[in-house]
Every structure is written in structure tokens, then in C-alpha cells.
Amino acid sequence: MAILENSKTNLNLSSPRPFYLMKMPEVAAHEQLPVAQARAGESAAWDVLFRRYQLPLYVYVFELIRHEQAALDVVQETFIAAAKHLGGLRADEKFGSWLFGIAHQKVVQQWRKRKEILFDEIPESLEEFETAPDDLLIRCESEIEFMNLLEQLPPPQRAMLLLHFVEDFSLEEISRITETQLGTVKSRLHYAKKSLRKLWEEQK
Questions:
Q1: Is a pLDDT exceeding 80 seen at residue 117?
Q2: Cα 134 from chain centroid (whole Å)
Q3: Which of 88, 126, 192, 200 could covalently link to 160 via disulfide, CB atoms 3.0 to 4.6 Å apart?
Q4: What is the CA radius of gyration of the chain?
Q5: pLDDT bucket at 11, cuts 50 / 70 / 90
Q6: Rounded Cα distance, 140 and 203, in Å
Q7: Hey, what CATH topology would domain 133-203 get?
Q8: Average confidence (pLDDT) over 106-110
């Protein structure tokens, strides 16, 4: 696992595509990530996992803490923690959400250090909850416009929207990543979308 022992400068974050267009890499049904091999300590397997997840993780973390070096640190620390605790992962197919969960908890630690306002308790009972992307995008003319609006939201609300609509995680996966109940995830996502819609209406 030499790649995890190298310095942060080895993070390969170059890409011809803007960060806001980057999403979680899709894994074909027939393709299996080498999680078992990584668990066995094979450095080549860790190379594959690192290359697949380094950029999506960086994009997610950077959008939440808005500091390049701190985001690089979190990504590096996330992979180090993953290497240390991979033996405790029981379902290899959940590696992606498990890895994002580690990163998310480290982001929360950053928020606490910076005294960011975290979520207040939100009632879990909602009359209606929809997750259609076209409802979320609320007729934004471009993804750039959407991301500009997203940056104006509090970090915890950005996290909900990024995980669901940018990284394409299911509500159940977000529940595991953020260590919150499914009903709470639905509520938080609902209010995050509501805040985003309000911002869109104010600028029109």
C-alpha cells in the first residue's frame, strides 16, 4: 500500500472536465472493484481504488470546506483510514459509500473546528417528498448555475444535495454515509432543496 504512504502531492487531481461536472464513477454490473485484494494488502488493488475515487472524493470534500489544502488532507486521511479499517467492511459492494462515509465524518470534524452551523433538528414527518432531479434543478439554465447556487447554501445542506444529485448516492447510502436515520435524510434533503429553490427565485 505504498501509495497511501506517499505525500499528498501524489494525489492526481488533474482532469480536463470542471470539478462541478465530475460524478461518482459508475461500476458496470460485470465489473468488480478489487476490494478483497486491497484488504489482502495488494498495492495494485489500492492503486485502482485510489484512482477511481480520489477525484470524486476531492470534489465532494472541497465543495463542503472550500479550502484546497484542507480538502487534499481530508482525502489523504480518508484513504489512510480506509486502509486501516477495511477489514471491518462486510459488504465489498458498499466500498464507495463506506469510503465517502469516512470522508464525511472528517468533513464534520472540519466544520466543528471552524464552528460551522450544523443541522438543527428537523421533524422527520413530511407531507410530500420528491427526489426527481428536474425538481431539484428548478429550471437552472446550466450545471454551472446550479453549482453557483449550491455554494450559497450552508455546508450541511450542500452535503445532502451533492451526495444525492451529484454523486448519485441513494437515500439509503446517504443514511450510512452521514450516520443518520433515513427519515432524517429525507427531511434534510427536502429542506436543502427548499433553500435552493428560494435562492433561485431571489435571483430571478
A1: no
A2: 20
A3: 192
A4: 17
A5: low
A6: 11
A7: Arc Repressor Mutant, subunit A (1.10.10)
A8: 88
- Is 2-113 a domain of CATH 1.10.1740.10? yes
Model confidence band, residue 130 (pLDDT cutoffs 50, 70, 90): very low
- The pLDDT-based confidence of 72 (bands split at 50, 70, 90) is very high
Q: 31: pLDDT confidence band, cut at 50, 70 and 90?
A: low
Residue range 82-100, pLDDT digits in tens: 999 999 998 999 999 999 9
Q: Rounded to whole angstroms, how far apart are CA atoms 66 and 204?
A: 26
The C-alpha cell 453549482 sits at: 147
Produce one character per residue of 171-202: b if its CB has 16 or more CB atoms within 10 Å, e if not.
bebbbbbbeeeebbbbbbbbbbbebbeebbee
Three cell numbers, residue 61: 470534500
| Number of residues that make up the chain | 204
As given in the structure block, the three cell numbers for residue 26 are 459508475
- Residue 56: CB atoms within 10 A of its CB come to 22
Give the containing element (helix H, strand E) for 171. helix 171-178
